[in-house]
Specification:
Helix 1 packs antiparallel against helix 7 and helix 1 packs across helix 8. The chain is built from ten helices and no strands. The longest helix has about 50 residues. About 75% of the residues lie in helices and about 0% in strands.
Length: about 290
């Protein structure tokens, strides 16, 4: 128990002395994760849509060639950035550009390099998520859209992507939470985020474990808040489970509450019986009992 008290005292002392640095690190981590996830989603949606453009043998050879080329390029991009660690991608992109240009071209800032690295990495994962989300939609909806004269672009924008977005929303949130944690490798390109400040603190006072505990609590807090907000967004998109409004709509005509008009047109239809309409509405709402079925 004494060791836990000592740990809390060391953590309190570190936070009291260095809290501005910790807060700045958290802010940098969140900004990088949010911006990179948004850009990565755009990249992923573009790659996923391009990778699912249909073609047949009846299409022109030029169209088939370019679509196959696009799929090969997307596949190479996805496999390379999914199959290598982000820390090595950061080193290759940040230090590789000056190396291959003999220092003629430099990154304008470490922020730009960090955003590019995390965005490209996120886009590789999102590309497969978007492709899976598009393929999960019933093909009959695409056929129905074509039957009413919609083009492929109109079908994707108005029919497929709105439904696919709901299906892949959990994966978008998952990628954001991963980015919150994986930005900790950006210290290799001298980007100062939450974990990089922890490394600085350890170098100053050698209080490794107390500082690491603060880091763990900080990362856990960020990910838990992100999970809560994402679940709230999912519930918002799902809408209400109540159908009371549709059943109680005055314009809704319930079966059995009106008479069919005379085919000759001489006898006007009788108005619906309010009691019968209310009784059927209650049956539709609560269900009939076994004896009435």
């Amino acid at each position: 128990m004494q060791r836990f008290l000592d740990l809390f005292q060391d953590m309190a002392r570190l936070w009291q002395n260095y809290w501005p640095g910790y807060v700045n690190g958290i802010r940098s981590t969140l900004i990088l994760a949010v911006v990179a996830t948004l850009i990565g989603c755009v990249i992923g949606f573009a790659c996923g849509v391009l990778n699912t453009i249909p073609y047949t043998k009846r299409d022109r050879p030029v169209k088939r060639f370019f679509l196959k080329l696009i799929r090969v390029v997307v596949r190479v991009y996805v496999e390379v950035f999914r199959g290598t660690p982000m820390v090595l991608q950061a080193v290759f992109i940040y230090y590789g550009l000056p190396y291959f240009t003999y220092n003629a071209v430099q990154w304008p800032s470490v922020w730009a390099a960090a955003i590019v690295v995390v965005s490209i990495n996120t886009g590789a994962y999102m590309a497969e998520s978007v492709r899976g989300g598009i393929l999960s939609i019933d093909p009959g909806q695409t056929e129905g859209a074509k039957a009413i004269g919609m083009t492929h672009v109109q079908t994707m924008l108005s029919v497929i992507l709105p439904q696919a977005f709901r299906n892949i929303l959990p994966q978008i949130g998952n990628n954001f939470i991963i980015n919150v944690k994986d930005t900790s490798v950006m210290f290799v390109i001298t980007f100062t985020e939450f974990f990089a400040f922890h490394r600085y603190i350890v170098g100053v006072n050698n209080m490794y474990f107390p500082s690491a505990t603060i880091e763990m609590i900080g990362y856990l807090t960020m990910t838990l808040v992100a999970s809560f907000l994402l679940r709230a967004l999912e519930r918002r998109l799902d809408g209400s489970d109540s159908y009371e409004l549709a059943q109680a709509d005055a314009l809704t005509m319930t079966a059995g509450t009106y008479r069919r008009p005379d085919p000759t047109g001489d006898t006007p239809p009788e108005p619906p019986d309010p009691e019968a309409r209310e009784r059927i509405r209650q049956q539709l709402k609560h269900g009939r009992n076994r004896g009435e079925r």
